[in-house]
Amino acid sequence: MMSVSYYTAEGLKKLKDELEHLKSVERPKASQAIAEARDKGDLSENAEYDAAKEAQGMLEMRIAKLEEIHANARLIDESHLDTSKVLVLSNVKIKNQANGMELKYTLVAESEADLKTGKISVTSPIGKGLLGKSVGEIAEITVPNGKLNFEILEISRD
Length: 158
Prior knowledge:
Elements: E1 5-7, H1 9-38, H2 47-71, E2 73-75, E3 91-96, E4 102-108, E5 119-121, H3 125-130, E6 138-143, E7 146-156
Helix pairs in contact: 1-2
């Protein structure tokens, strides 16, 4: 049994789109590849057939995994989220106490994390350390390099 995952509307749409693509485009391609390999003769010595069957198995595993994730996905209602504390979907402006550097992150579900766009997972060390903190608090976060102290400067929602 898989645990519940929380998604933004954008993240849930991406999940649905990927699942639909795999089912409607990739699955027929895999079946076609198996049929073409089967038509080439003796299946006991047909490496192309074996490869096509293995690719289909991997595809079906991916589809099953995405279906399970989708079945346990919950859409986050942003209108009911508290802005006084850092929660999922919070935009957080923090200041590194060691070097004075200011950073902005949006805390998102693990599946939506993308550091290039400033989205960090709530399950990452920094995400975990920031959760539940209020403006003005210092978050002491243990990272692989040691401990970092971040001051929460601002919490907002888009």
